[in-house]
Amino acid sequence: MRILGIDFGEKRIGLAISDPLGILATPIETLDSSEMDLVIPKLAETISDHTVTKIVVGIPWTLSGKSGPQTKKTFEFISLISDTFEIPIKQIDERFTSLQAEKKLRLVDKRSRKKQKKIPKGLIDSVSAAIILQTYLDTK
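The structure assignment produced for this chain is given below.
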């Protein structure tokens, strides 16, 4: 049983997968959300390859806990994948996951702050998906 974590963004979709026991989340890849006709087949491939039994999607609530423009787009994406795949979909608050992901990636880069390279946005998105998924796994 594996769980797929998704960080849906306007430009990119970060993906992460759990281990078979549902203990650890690992970032796997980032998809281009502007090419939605390619996203669904890629998700189908990922779901099949990893025998995914559940999907966890991060919901980008505003700081005040309300719905914003990206929240609406995320719910539209959830509707699309729930109509496409017969897999349970859970939602989890994703506020600050991109910031957490960037901080974690900077901690790994041991160079001085001035010498650190710019972190690719796609990497941040897949690590954000892993944080979303790990948060879900930790609450089980």
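Interim note for the steering committee: The chain has a mean pLDDT of 87. The helical segments are 36-49, 69-84, 97-108, 121-139.
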